Amino acid sequence: MRDWDEHRLVLAIHRGGTLRAAAEYLGVTHTTVSRRLSALEQDQASPIFVRSDRAYKVSDYGRQRVAIAEQIESLDFAAGRLALGASGGLSGPLSLSVPHAFLQFVLMKDIAAFASAHPNIQLTVAGSDAFADLDRGQADVVLRGQINPDPHLVGRMISTVGVSYYANRDYFDVTPHSQLQWVASVAAAKNEAEPQSWRTQSPFPHAPVGLIIDDIISRHQAVSEGHGLGRLACFMSDPDPNLIRISDSDPTQLYELWVLTHPDLRDTPKVRALMRWLGYALKPKRASLVGVNQD
User: Fold this and answer.
1) How many CA atoms lie within 13 A of 183 on its CB side?
2) How far apart are CA 111 and CA 96, in angstroms?
3) pLDDT tens figures, 107-144
4) What is the pLDDT confidence band of residue 228, given thresholds at 50, 70 and 90?
5) Closest by CA position to 220, among listed 203, 234, 199
6) pLDDT for 259-286, tens place per residue?
7) Where are the alpha helices (DSSP H) in the chain?
8) CATH class of the domain defined by 4-85
9) What is the gyration radius of the CA atoms in the chain, in angstroms?
10) Average per-residue pLDDT for the chain
11) What would the mean pLDDT of 225-251 be, rounded to a whole number?
12) Contact between residue 1 and residue 61 where contact means Cβ atoms under 8 Å apart
C-alpha cells in the first residue's frame, strides 16, 4: 500500500461492511469507493475483501491488512495529538464533546464565555450523547457521564448526577388514576419488569409505560407538557416551572460526571484552560446536578 488513504479505505470498508457505508464515512461517493477498491486490489497478491451479496468481509489476507491499517491509524492519531500539544499557547483549534442535555441546560453560557475569553482558540463543540473516542481524536476534551471511565484517560470527577420522579404540576388534576402512565427511555422500558426496577420503587408502580422516547431532552419535554410521569434528571427538571417532584425519596445518583482528556494532551495549555474552566463552571452547580437543591 502506498499511502494512508489506502489504509483508510480498507478500514472504512471493513468497519462499514458495505461500499455505501464506507463512502459515507469517507465523505465520498459510492462510485469513488468502488473505483479505489478496484484499483487497490489490482496491486495485491490476494483479494482484501470477499463480497457476499452487498456485504464486504475481509479475507485472511485482508485481516492482516486491517491490523496494519489500525496500527498506522493509531500512529496518525498520536501524531495529531503531538501536533496539538506542540502548538503551545492559548491559540489554534480545540474540540469539546458534551452530552446534549448538559450543553443545553447547564453549560451553554459558560462555553460561550470561554470562547469569548479566548478569542485565539477556535473552539468546536459537539453536542452528542455518543462517547467521543479520545484515542481516535474525536475530541480533545470530553464531558462524560459514566461510572469508572477508562483509567488511562486524564481528568477528574465533577459530581454525581441524580434522577427523581416528576410530573407536570397539573397532571394529576386532569388525568384519572386509571390512565396514569410513564414516559421512559428504551433501556428503562426494557428493565421495568425487574423486581428492583425504577418503576416498582416509584410512587406509582402499577402505572404502565405508555410512551417510550429515547432522547433525554424530548422525554423531559413530554413529561413537562403533561404526557406522562417521568424519571428525569434533577438538573433539568427542578428548574422547570411546569414540573413537580412526586417522590419524597432522595434522588438516585445514576452516574458520575467527568471532565477528561487524553494523557498526551494533559499539559497542552488550551486543553488545561478548557478543563479548568469547565471545572469552575460546574462547581457551583453540583447541588443541582446531585438534585439536592429543591425548594
Assistant:
1) 24
2) 10
3) 999 999 999 999 999 999 999 888 899 888 899 999 99
4) very high
5) 234
6) 999 999 988 999 999 999 999 999 999 9
7) 4-16, 19-26, 30-42, 60-86, 100-102, 108-117, 171-174, 186-191, 216-224, 234-237, 269-282, 286-290
8) mainly alpha
9) 24
10) 88
11) 96
12) no
8 C-beta neighbours (distance < 10 Å), count: 18
Of 276, 289, 290, 267, the closest CA to residue 110 belongs to: 276
Predicted TM-score of the model (pTM): 0.73
Long-range contacts of the stretch 104-110 (C-beta < 8 A, 24+): 104/217, 105/235, 105/236, 106/235, 106/282, 106/285, 106/288, 106/289, 107/143, 107/278, 107/281, 107/282, 110/277, 110/278, 110/281
**Dihedral, CA atoms, 233, 238, 243, 249, nearest 10 degrees?**
70
C-alpha cell at 78: 498520536
Q: Which residues have a Cβ under 8 Å from the Cβ of 26 and sit 6 or more positions away?
A: 8, 9, 12, 33
C-alpha span between 73 and 64 (Å, rounded): 14
Q: Which fold has domain 92-295?
A: D-Maltodextrin-Binding Protein; domain 2 (3.40.190)
User: Other C-beta atoms within 10 Å of 31: how many?
Assistant: 10
Rounded to 5 degrees, φ, ψ at 243 are -110, 150
Return the residue matching grid coordinates 417510550. 212
Domain positions in the chain are 4-85, 92-295
